[in-house]
Specification:
The structure holds two protein chains of two kinds. Chain A is mainly alpha-helical. Chain A has a single domain, classed as Orthogonal Bundle (ABC transporter involved in vitamin B12 uptake, BtuC), CATH 1.10.3470. Chain A is 73% helix and 1% strand. Chain A contains 13 helices and two strands; from the N terminus they run H-H-H-H-H-E-H-E-H-H-H-H-H-H-H. In chain A, helix 2 runs parallel beside helix 7. Chain A is globular and about 60 Å long. The termini of chain A are far apart. The relative contact order of chain A is 0.19. Helices cover 77% and strands 0% of the residues of chain B. Classes of the chains: A mainly alpha, B mainly alpha.
């Protein structure tokens, strides 16, 4: 059999997909919830970086996994709060503020790293702890499924639980309803007494929460150190994944899975001298096409509404 | 005095933001460095202390300035297209391919190669423009996606078809000498592309502030509905502004290849497109101020490099300062109370004078 086909059909490949998907799924959920609220957060790259950095530093100095989890979450959520403050309170454009915060995160993490370790590049000198891998009882003994789905890092399972959590928050809680209302039509939401800015702030904080978990996974699961540029554009890929998934729980999950599969495939192709570039570009192309299709549909719907005599602006 | 503040409020606000950024940098240096006085001197004066560093500063100007001008045209029309990076990358890749596979005299080769790179960049950004104009699809997301596609396309083109197998690392074949932008000061790498970028700054300024289409671009940016009401074909401007962005960015990428490396040597995206966003914000989308902003960014970058080499402060400190400056400049409410107070007092004085 073709060696490539053989490796793709192996269970390790299935395992790799989930492994690669995790640091995309978390930030994708983060983008999705902010986009639902109408304040798309493109600072997930920065959020992942600061949470990864804080997690590793605290882990190295306290040797406590729980403390580093909280430190990572605190750092990521703080950055999201900063974005919210500048966008909602100081009326900065959210995209420009997010671009600035991505820069800020890249810089401040290295400065802190240097302050605590004296190293300008990475924390390879520090021994960071890892979130544990978990074998799922019973499932781990099932052939094929066991090696694919069992033995992952606990945060990989957490990411899948987060999809459910995301669904729960957005579709089953009053806050979720407010978030969606604010995203669809802020004026209408305001007219029924919803505090638009506060709701958006909550959405941004939640997006910081999801993003931080992604950052923590990166440096305390995927690898065990922090290095500059550790998130390597995943925060931006997350925008694609959320857009492709229509910002919905299942859609975001599936598109993150697709991005994971494509990246895993590209890793497998790399040594074979096959132009993996075309495979790597597919998800981005797919996202652009999906974006165009959504937009076209939305436009058509709006036009139909206008034709039927509904006032402009009604969703 | 207060009248003066009111008139130049935006400029003053920008300068205050930059000063705050510099104060923070001083604080950071004192926090991190063991010999803060020396480090601070290296950071602020370093770029001027040797001829090499000074020329580094000028050399790094052209791609930043090109991208800043490109972004400014789109931002003036309020199109948040961040596709400069992709246009620059793909434009330079295709331009390199073209330059390597053609032979012609220098006076034809240079403009043709630049044209090819520019046209590729422009065509690339036509897509997000079209999607926005026709279906109101977010140009930010689509241009971001197109950046990645451009990156992989460019890599494929260079690595699989125009790779120099004799070189020890992944680079394209060397450009024929007829496609090199020569140095205008010998023994430095300051090449004519830098002069070209300055020419473009004037051209873009003229376009935006002294041409009908430029007026339409700015009008669309101020108030799209009003522009439409005034008879401006907004969807045309939406597309055009993004196409111009791609054109300028493509040319900018190519000058870097033709003037500095003489090969396409980017294996990761160089990030000039994002630098362009930075200088466009600092220069408040005004082409001539963007020249100053690009110089400022280049100065900070070289200062950062000097810091890394000569002192114990990491160059990333510069990134922190940049981000603080951008945040303060984009925050509309920053200092708005101050202006409000001045406006009220001015008005009261006028009423009293009457």
């Amino acid at each position: 059999m073709n060696p490539l086909l053989k490796s793709i059909l192996s269970t390790e490949f299935g395992f790799a997909i989930l492994r690669v998907m995790t640091p995309l799924l978390f930030p994708a959920l983060g983008v999705a919830i902010s986009a639902l609220a109408g304040a798309t957060n493109i600072a997930l790259e920065g959020i992942m970086i600061v949470s990864a950095c804080a997690g590793v530093l605290v882990s190295a100095f306290t040797h406590s996994l729980v403390l580093s989890l909280f430190a990572g979450l605190a750092a990521g959520i703080a950055l999201a709060a900063l974005l919210g403050y500048f966008h909602l309170k100081l009326r900065a454009d959210i995209f420009l503020a997010a671009i600035a915060l991505n820069l800020f995160a890249a810089g401040i993490s290295i400065v802190f790293l240097f302050l605590f370790t004296g190293d300008k590049g990475s924390t390879s000198s520090l021994k960071s702890q890892l979130f544990p891998a978990v074998d799922i009882p019973l499932l781990q003994n099932v052939p094929v499924l066991g090696p694919i789905f069992s033995g992952h890092n606990i945060l990989t399972y957490a990411s899948i639980v987060s999809v459910f959590l995301y669904w729960l928050i957005t579709f089953k809680t009053p806050l979720g309803l407010r978030i969606r209302a604010v995203g669809q039509n802020p004026d209408a939401a305001q007219s029924v007494g919803i505090n638009v800015n506060r709701t958006r702030m909550y959405a941004l904080l939640l997006s910081g929460f999801f993003g931080s978990l992604g950052g923590l996974y990166l440096c305390m699961g995927y690898v065990s150190w922090f290095a500059r540029d550790i998130s390597a554009g995943r925060g931006f890929i997350a925008i694609a994944a959320a857009t492709l998934g229509g910002n919905l729980p299942l859609g975001t999950f599936l598109s993150s899975l697709l991005f994971g599969a494509v990246n895993a495939l590209a890793n497998y192709l790399a040594p074979l001298k096959v132009p993996s570039e075309f495979i790597q570009m597919t998800p981005y192309l797919a996202t652009a096409v999906a974006l165009a299709i959504y937009a076209a549909q939305a436009m058509r719907k709006r036009r139909r509404k206008v034709r039927e005599g509904a006032p402009e602006g009604t969703p | 005095m207060e009248k003066f503040v009111l008139k130049y409020f935006n400029l003053i606000r920008t300068i205050i933001a930059i000063l705050i950024g510099l104060v923070i940098s001083v604080c950071l240096i004192y926090l991190v460095s063991k010999d803060p006085g020396f480090s601070l001197k290296q950071f602020l004066l370093g770029p001027f202390l040797s001829r090499g560093r000074f020329s580094n500063m000028i050399e790094s100007l052209s791609p930043i300035l090109f991208c800043g001008l490109a972004i400014a045209v789109a931002f003036q029309a309020r199109q948040f297209n961040v596709g400069a990076e992709g246009s620059l990358f793909l434009g330079a890749a295709v331009g390199t391919a073209f330059a390597v596979s053609t032979r012609m005299p220098i006076f034809l080769h240079i403009p043709l190669v630049l044209l090819v790179a520019g046209v590729v960049g422009a065509a690339w950004n036509y897509i997000p423009g079209l999607l926005k104009a026709r279906w109101n699809a977010s140009e930010l997301v689509s241009s971001l996606m197109m950046n990645y596609v451009a990156y992989f396309l460019g890599l494929y083109l260079i690595n699989f078809h125009f790779r120099d197998k004799a070189a020890g690392y992944l680079v394209s074949l060397q450009l024929p000498q007829t496609a090199w932008l020569q140095q205008f000061i010998p023994d430095t790498r300051m090449h004519w592309g830098i002069v070209l970028s300055l020419v473009f700054a004037v051209l873009v300024w003229f376009f935006l502030y002294h041409s009908t289409t430029g007026y339409e671009v700015r009008m669309t940016g101020y108030n799209e509905k009003f522009a439409r009401f005034g008879g401006i074909r907004v969807s045309r401007i939406v597309i055009l502004s993004q196409v111009i962005l791609g054109l300028i960015a493509g040319i900018g990428g190519m000058t870097e290849v033709m003037g500095i490396h003489h090969r396409f040597n980017w294996q990761i995206s160089p990030g000039y497109g994002w630098d362009g966003v930075i200088v466009a914000i600092i220069g408040r989308n005004h082409p001539l101020l963007i020249v100053a902003a690009s110089l400022f960014l280049a100065y900070m970058r070289v200062g950062g490099q000097v810091l890394t080499l000569m002192s114990d402060v990491p160059a990333e400190m510069v990134t922190v300062i940049q981000s603080v400056i951008i945040l303060l400049i984009t925050a509309e409410a920053f200092l708005s109370r101050w202006r409000y107070g001045i406006t009220v007092r001015e008005a009261a004085r006028k009423v009293a004078a009457r």
